[in-house]
Design brief:
mainly alpha, 9 helices
Length: about 200
């Protein structure tokens, strides 16, 4: 049992170390710190993660920090996915944003209860980290395939019909508003002409 746990830890450390050696701004910064301090970037990153976890538990503005972490990296990765020519990364980050949106919606309605959960922002940040983890079985993939996808496919036709009706209603309302604005403008112009003729 202990050897299996040790193997898993080493596997995760190797994966994290590989990610930390990819070329990007954050890793370039870690490389500079590594060169100046002589401490491996893996341990610097783990130290920063530990500090972040502690701050999310007891720090001021934990909500902002949590939402910042859950948005910033995925937004950057999504931009890179848009600019790349492969489809897999697009699917990965679209799936993340679907789960993120659903979670935000649930969070909005459950806000009154969240106050009572100890270390909520730390737990939320861990959940979002799990959802964006660079693995095939990350949280967003699992939640989407097991919970969101079956419901979306089951009610897809009803949702599409409702959206079509809403779109038609918006276009109709836009047409009515445009007609009323045109009539009002014509009436205002007519009054202006009448008023001008009276003053002459």
């Amino acid at each position: 049992m202990a050897s299996a746990v040790s193997e898993n830890v080493e596997t995760w450390k190797a994966k994290l170390d590989k990610i930390l050696h990819e070329k990007n701004f954050a890793n370039d910064t870690l490389e500079k710190i590594e060169q100046k301090t002589g401490v491996r970037r893996l341990y610097i990153a783990l130290g920063l993660l530990a500090f972040l976890g502690l701050y999310l538990m007891i720090g001021y503005g934990a909500q902002f920090v949590c939402n910042f972490v859950g948005f910033l990296y995925p937004a950057y990765a999504s931009i890179k996915a848009i600019e790349s020519h492969t489809k897999d990364d697009d699917t990965k980050w679209l799936t993340y944003w679907v789960v993120y949106a659903l979670f935000s919606l649930i969070e909005f309605f459950a806000d009154i209860f969240l106050f009572w959960i100890p270390f909520y922002w730390f737990l939320k940040c861990c959940f979002l980290g799990y959802c964006m983890a660079p693995t095939a079985w990350n949280g967003s993939h699992t939640i989407y395939n097991r919970a969101i996808r079956p419901i979306a496919l089951k009610y897809q036709d009803r949702i599409d019909t409702a959206l079509d009706k809403a779109s038609d209603a918006i276009h109709e309302a836009g047409g009515v508003a445009e007609k009323m604005a045109t009539e009002a403008a014509a009436e205002a112009a007519k009054r202006h002409i009448v008023d001008s003729s009276k003053t002459d």
